[in-house]
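Bit of a strange request maybe. I'm writing a small parser for structure token strings and I need a real example to test against, not something I typed by hand. Could someone generate the tokens for this chain?
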Amino acid sequence: MASFTKSLKNPSYLHSSLTLLLFFMSWGIWWSFFQLWLTKDTASGGLGLNGADVGTVYSVNSLVTLILMFFYGTIQDRLGLKRHLTILIGAIASCVAPFVIFVYEPLLKNAFMFGVILGSIVLSAGFMAGVGLLEAFAERMSRRFDFEYGQSRMWGSFGYAVVALFAGFLFTVNPHLNFILGTVFGIALLLIQLFWKPAKVDHSANPAETTQPGVREMAGLLGMKSLWLIIVFVIFSWTFYTVFDQQMFPDFYTGLFDTKERGEQVYGVLNAAQVFCEAAMMGVVPIIMRKIGVRNTLMLGVTVMTLRIFGCAALSNPVAVSFVKMFHALEVPLFILPVFRYFTLHFNPALSATLYMVGFQISAQIGNVILSNPLGKLRDAMGYQPTFFVISGIVLLAGIYAFFTLKKDDEQVLGDPFVRDGQMVVVDTATAGPAPDADTGKA
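Reply from user aminoacidic:
Good idea to test on real output. This should exercise your parser:
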């Protein structure tokens, strides 16, 4: 794999990195405070929703997102590296402020369910489903044009961190400012997709990568037992963590301070510090993965995830909780990067976008649809920290399940083999027979 210095001279790496940078800036400037905006009192510029209403918003968002993700994944696998969908995402991101200020917010106040449904379509198409599409597109670019995906994805985290530095201060002045800056970054993202066409130097050594998969191949994925094993793992780990981190932690954390305003400002700075570290870890985790392997890295990620949630359940001092919050910087790269590599290792890499959408993003969204409202009600009834204890216990059980069910790096190698540093190239390809019997190893 090309070094980072060499990657900086690669136009495809630069295009991919700038795309992720601007997208996460357009999304992160308002998304990191979305839950706070929904729950903040109306006198301070928020909507004043309770936990059940917030759960409804997130549930419907997730339902629409999982539908769009399936179409995004299958369409992008057919398009290959054509940028029709990335242009669409840039166009929606450039319109986020007018939509939220003049359409979404008034509807949530006066016609709640209609606003929830319309908002879920626009925000999911541009951001919640868009993130998976752009990540899958960047990962495919990395394999076709010889650069490290993690080193490209880290620019997305870096962009999120940059905007998080001042997002909290803008939010305390007027939440609309966050959405307006989201539109500014979205316009820049759209312009990049429309007018920058990097040199098409194809370094692919795998002819299968250039073959467009058929609908039968895509549908056949759903018949693979090994895919369903990891889907179950994602639902009971990443999904519960997402509900905890996005729908509960911001309001819980800001409530630890003397005033909500002070908590929002500190949360913004802490969020920035955490994502800066996350960006650095995006470049480090591929090195860790080459040392300990894909499956072991994923197990390390779910361990850190469990400790993060349990720490917030057990601690109530803002300094201690802030320290535990920084675990997020380790957990996200340790989970996302090996999940991606797991798919391209054990499945057909030509279907990488569909696999990532179905196996990771869509399965996570299914969990959000099912869990957001019940966990919101549980939080209303029990409070944040008892709910965190429940979530951490479930994630722990998911990790135990994964230890016994996920395949090792040298088992069922149907895609690109993974070889650790200093390891001999010995993999089990006996299971790489016809797709219907791939899980049994029979031809």
